[in-house]
Structures are given as C-alpha cells and as structure tokens.
C-alpha cells in the first residue's frame, strides 16, 4: 500500500509541474536495481509551467528574523533507517551515513525524493541544513511539506543558480505560490550549505534561508501532513545533496 501511494505521489508531482501537456504514466527511463533496494526509487522529468497563485505575500525588503520556536517535537540525526524511504539503483541513491541523509542521482532530468514516516505535523518550526556537493545551474533541491494522505503537498525549492521557488499541489490542481526568483540568501553552486527554516501555524507559513526571510504564504487548504526531501537534475550532470541537523519545534506566535 505504501509503495502504491509513493508511485501516486510521483504522478501527482508530475502534474504539479506541467498541466497543459500530458505526461506518460511511466518514467522517461526505467532503472535497473543494483542488488535489492530498501525502498522504491522513482522519478520523472519535470518542467516549469506553474499556474498563478493569489494568496502569497512577498516582502523582499522586509527584515523578519526567524523565530526560535518552542518545545522540541523531534530531532533527527539521520541514523535510523526505519524513518525514511531508502533505496539504490544504478543511477540513484537515498542513503544514511555519518549523520546525514544523502540523495544522489546521475540521470538527465531525473527527480528523486524521500518521505519521513512520522510524525504528522500541524503547527511547527522546522530547521534543516541542505548541503549540495554536486549541482549546477537549474538543479533543484529542498523540502516537501504537509504531504497529506490524499497526496497534497507544498514544495520549498532551492536552485543551484541561487534561486528559490514554492509549489503547491491540492485537489488535483497545481500552482506556484512563489515563482522561481533569484535570492541573495542561496549560495550558488557546490560545495555549499544552507540552513532552511519554515514556520507554520494554521494557514500561515513563513520561509527562511540562512536566517533571512524569503516570503509568507497564507493558505487555509493544507494544514497538516508529513515531511520529505527531494532533488532534481535539470541537465545531464550528476546531483548530490545531503541533509543534516533536522530539528522540529512547536510553533510559537511571532
């Protein structure tokens, strides 16, 4: 049942990025597993055709410090394989090691993700470090937020050219609340490292990179869900991103 839901999530992710041109039900290439993977690894070739979203509040010149958060809900030093979808093929890998969760792929236009089993998050303040070791230009990585049992979600993306974006998929409709925009907070290229933070309370979400405010979202439709990470290759180069030092706290009023 879990594998079926993950395959459905990939199909929905494809719809999130392109609605005008139907995508095939099968990926653009079929991976050949090396030995027996510990999870199902899937991908598709995304494109950038988001639809407008009216409820985003963007304040690029506003100085807003990230909140400290309340009591700790959980921390993750990425040593427990039971919490994450892991797997390996000839061209992809999702693995734990040295207190990091590393996603790697070596296939043009490939997309790779993993989800955490629990807990389901409602109001929270999340911080995690993302460290690209191989990436360039339009390669993409980041967070999947409030992934619901019905496979709705937000996606907070950083690009290796120094850009940022926010996507949403809800009730079969895709939108891009924050279109791809250059951000001085995102170090371009690799090796590099960024501390991502998200404050979410009710319908309001604030997004930060390296302690710097990026944008707000006020949206009452997705109020809880699970957490995940993803990477995407925009070209024919390999992409490797590691995630570390995950901490999730209770959201306190700002």
Write a compact overview of the structure shown.
This protein is mainly β.
Q: How many domains?
A: 1
Q: Which CATH first-tier class would you pick?
A: Mainly Beta
CATH topology: Jelly Rolls
CATH superfamily: Exo-inulinase, domain 1
Reported CATH architecture: Sandwich
Fraction in beta strands: 35-45%
Average pLDDT, all residues:
81
Largest sheet: 10 strands, antiparallel
Number of strands: 16
Low-confidence stretches: 1-62
Structural class by secondary-structure content: mainly beta
Helix and strand string, N-terminal first? Answer: HEEEEEEEEEEEEEEEE
Work out the helicity level.
Answer: under 10%
Shape: globular
Radius of gyration: 17 Å
Distance between the termini: 40 Å
Helix count, per DSSP?
1
List the helices and strands and how they pair.
Elements: H1 2-17, E1 56-57, E2 72-76, E3 87-88, E4 92-97, E5 100-105, E6 111-115, E7 124-134, E8 140-147, E9 153-159, E10 163-170, E11 173-182, E12 194-201, E13 204-209, E14 212-218, E15 226-232, E16 239-249
Antiparallel strand pairs: 1-14, 2-16, 3-4, 4-5, 5-16, 6-15, 7-12, 7-16, 8-9, 8-15, 9-10, 10-11, 12-13, 13-14
List keywords for this structure.
254 residues, mainly beta, Jelly Rolls, ten-stranded antiparallel beta sheet, six-stranded antiparallel beta sheet
């Amino acid at each position: 049942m879990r594998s079926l839901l993950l395959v459905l999530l990939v199909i929905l992710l494809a719809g999130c990025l392109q609605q005008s041109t139907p995508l095939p039900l099968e990926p653009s290439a079929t991976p050949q597993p090396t030995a027996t993977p510990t999870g199902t690894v899937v991908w598709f070739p995304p494109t950038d055709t988001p639809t407008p979203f009216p409820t985003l509040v963007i304040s690029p010149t506003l100085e807003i410090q990230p909140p400290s958060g309340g009591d700790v809900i959980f921390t993750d030093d990425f040593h427990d394989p039971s919490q994450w979808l892991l797997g390996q093929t000839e061209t992809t890998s999702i693995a734990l090691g040295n207190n990091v969760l590393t996603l790697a792929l070596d296939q043009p236009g490939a997309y790779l993700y993993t989800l955490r089993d629990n807990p389901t998050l409602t109001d929270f303040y999340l911080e995690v470090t993302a460290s690209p070791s191989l990436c360039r230009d339009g390669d993409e990585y980041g967070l999947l937020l409030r992934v619901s049992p019905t496979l709705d979600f937000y996606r907070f993306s950083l690009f290796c050219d120094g850009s940022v974006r926010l996507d949403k998929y809800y009730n079969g409709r895709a939108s891009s609340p924050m279109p791809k925009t250059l951000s001085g907070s995102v170090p371009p290229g690799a090796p590099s490292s960024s501390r991502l933070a998200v404050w979410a309370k009710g319908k309001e979400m604030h997004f930060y990179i390296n302690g710097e405010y990026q944008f707000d979202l006020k949206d009452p439709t997705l109020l809880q869900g699970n957490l995940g990470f993803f990477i995407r290759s925009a070209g024919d180069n390999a992409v490797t991103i590691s995630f570390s030092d995950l901490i999730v706290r209770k959201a306190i009023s700002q």
